[in-house]
């Protein structure tokens, strides 16, 4: 597990990283153009076939869970408390009322997070970090900047491993890393101080190594991996442009007559996130429970 | 007269925050195809000396340097470390810190890419380099998933692929277990057969005696001995004065001579030692 990249053989994987970067930009732009919950939901659903095509459904769902946490929080808290709401939609126990305007606001925000998150996950999981770096270089981004980006991806697993070593070492010196929350927070200092120093030293050493591998040499550089914009990329780019034009048309001329967002839709999306969230909690609890019983993990 | 592979003249170097120089008036030279072993206690300045040869000291690691270092006849100080890397490969002590790429083939390709080697050429060189270090078939794996010995061999392959004529290794096996050490030394043995010039820093005198043509003994920044390895290691008295040991067989013959007032000719190789011993004892 070196980075988030999932090596698979798919159409999405074989797209040029630059195309995929433009795709992320396109999705971000779209999520702002389509500032209507219904349209964003449609957009989110429309992105899913790409995830399937990239063969990363399972890892995608795992990582999107965390974004869903935000969505639940935003939709619930904003739906009730955001002061822009006036029209009550429904009431839950304790006299807390979800209001239409607040729910629209909260849904747009949460769906935007999910939509952008989907695009980002899709990009990171299907793009080899070195390809990303070499694509950036083709866009005239300085080589050293591209390398910093690349090595950031790579240093994460190294730091994770060092963190484990430091933690075990400190535990061996009777540092209580499994105690109460406050105790754990306090213990971050003896954890992070050595971790920071180790990482710093490693990076420092790596800079010598890079120097010995001709990293700062002037002139043309080459890469083992080939990235090339082909017909597939052009098709994809054209598709994105077409879609963008359609979105703008929709936005400018159709919004008056098209009213997809209803109370029901808002309520069901809210319940939907709650239900998924509920499942996540149950899964988590069961796992903890199994851990306690089995003693493993 | 053909240029020496490495020629060091009157080299003195001090780090910014120390009063006394860590290298004091160093002189030595090695020919093409020779392997030099550098030994000495920790802190003697071995790493600093090695880094002077490819310009890392003083160009990247700053300090005050006097004297000259020439590689293949040209002055290191007039070139950059990146440029020097075409001639001089450097393998460091810590295997893991030398690896920066996602897969093994990319790790090997990284240095070549910086030199602008065309892709087709890279493929050939990757295959060659991995074969030389015995990592064929590992191309797509992650460098982090290798054992220490394998990682160090990968670091060597990455340097070899850049096709330097000189290879410097700073304690390449000191972080490794015995198996890892053997793996790396097996690779080194091949390098010698390929006619490479090399500098190896290591504490394992048996290995140094077996692989190196010449040995330089560094002690507190000064060259105490610089001679063919046989000559250095059989000067046991001097070695002991410098808190160093000779290979075990040499130590044995010396102790034997001392204890029984004999005069067996000292040797660093097992076979020769046995012969010498036999000729006296019979
Ligand atoms: N970057 C540095 N700055 C200051 N002093 C250093 C630095 N690197 C090494 N030294 C000092 O220089 C001396 C020689 O170090 P080094 O060349 O690493 O020795 P060796 O490799 O023989 O163990 C040591 O006393 C060490 O503390
Ligand atoms: Mg050293």
TrEMBL record, chain A:
Highest taxon of the lineage: Bacteria
Entry annotated with the keyword Nucleotide-binding: no
Major localization class: membrane
Transmembrane intervals: 21-48, 60-81, 102-125, 234-253, 265-286
UniProt keyword Coiled coil present: no
Key words, A-Z: Cell membrane, Membrane, Transmembrane, Transmembrane helix
Membrane topology summary: Multi-pass membrane protein
One of the record's GO cellular component terms: plasma membrane
A Pfam entry, by short name: CbiQ
Cellular localization per UniProt: Membrane
Signal sequence residues: none
InterPro entries reported in the protein's UniProt record: ABC/ECF_trnsptr_transmembrane, ECF_transporter_component
Protein name, per record: Energy-coupling factor transport system permease protein
UniProtKB/TrEMBL annotation, chain B:
Source superkingdom: Bacteria
A Gene Ontology term for the protein's cellular component: ATP-binding cassette (ABC) transporter complex
This protein's UniProt keywords: ATP-binding, Cell membrane, Membrane, Nucleotide-binding, Translocase, Transport
Keyword Acyltransferase: no
Cellular compartments annotated: Cell membrane
Residue span, ABC transporter domain: 6-245
PROSITE patterns on file: ABC_TRANSPORTER_1, ABC_TRANSPORTER_2
A molecular-function term among this protein's GO annotations: ATP binding
Topology class, membrane: Peripheral membrane protein
Family the UniProt entry places it in: Belongs to the ABC transporter superfamily.
Cited PANTHER family: HEAVY METAL TRANSPORTER
Protein name: Energy-coupling factor transport system ATP-binding protein/energy-coupling factor transport system ATP-binding protein
